[in-house]
Specification:
The chain is an alpha/beta fold. 34% of the residues lie in helices and 24% in strands. The strands form two sheets. Strands 6-5-7-8-3-9 form a six-stranded parallel β-sheet, sandwiched between helices. It has a three-stranded antiparallel β-sheet with strand order 2-1-4. Helix 3 links the parallel strand 5 and strand 6. Helix 2 crosses helix 3 and helix 5 runs parallel beside helix 6. It is globular and about 60 Å long.
């Protein structure tokens, strides 16, 4: 169902239109729903004698990696991507596991120069041993509106739009102009929720930590912490 299906038809009363929209979002508590399929897990847990992967992220949701500068946030992102892709990456971690590894990973860097971005992207390839299903992009030279536009194009219109399983956005704050602008912050977090729900993908984002409060930066950080499925705090040691 598209947004056009929610628009009132010619001559249709607005109350009828709203009633249809409300019905589309009704939750039947008696209907058995399956647990969202796991995209990335860390470790396992046991329930009633059955062992299950402990989700770091499920398809249809987004997660966040939060930490101060130089705390290896990007390295953790690379490791998560590598384990999702599989290959020989199990030599770097057996606790972290990827699921549905035939899916494509889109790795987006908004912060670093092309040379530094390529070094980070090569690290993933070195861990996995292959470039298959790995699509890295460096968007630093672009305006924040262009970055947002290109990511949306990748998700909905690119040649591999139906094969994406995981997207990593290193620098979520670079998709807006002001990380303290409530309207912009709500918009970009709403995008994350919309993209993941409509395309049944997992998105992991990286956001910096405030040096004074140890919280994710700005109003954007507050929005992300409230809506993310998983928040991983990385510390300098």
């Amino acid at each position: 169902m598209s947004l056009l299906d929610y628009l009132p038809k010619d001559g249709e009363p607005i109350t009828s239109h709203l009633s249809q929209k409300l019905d589309a979002h009704f939750v039947d508590v008696n209907k058995k729903l399956s647990f969202p399929p796991v995209a990335i897990s860390i470790g396992e847990h046991t329930i009633r004698g059955n062992t299950y992967p402990t989700p770091f992220g499920t398809f249809g949701n987004f997660s966040a990696i939060v930490g101060p500068s130089k705390s290896k946030k990007t390295f953790l992102k690379s490791l998560l991507i590598a384990r999702f892709l599989g290959g020989k990456s199990n030599q770097f971690s057996t606790t972290i596991k990827g699921h549905n590894q035939n899916k494509i990973v889109v790795d987006i860097d908004t912060e670093q120069s092309l040379w530094h971005s390529q070094n980070v992207f090569r690290r993933v390839v070195d861990m996995v041993g292959s470039t298959e299903n790995y699509k890295p992009y460096s968007l630093r030279p672009l305006a924040h509106t262009e970055r947002l536009e290109l990511i949306e194009f990748l998700i909905y219109e690119s040649e591999f739009k139906n094969d994406i399983g995981l997207i990593a956005i290193d620098g979520i704050a670079d998709l807006i102009q002001d990380f303290n602008n409530l309207v912009e912050c709500e918009m970009v977090v709403q995008k994350l929720m919309k993209w993941t729900a409509e395309k049944n993908i997992h998105i992991t984002t990286i956001i910096h930590q405030n040096s004074t409060t140890n919280k994710a930066t700005g109003h954007l950080g507050s929005f992300i912490l409230k809506k993310a499925e998983t928040v991983c705090n990385v510390k300098n040691v």
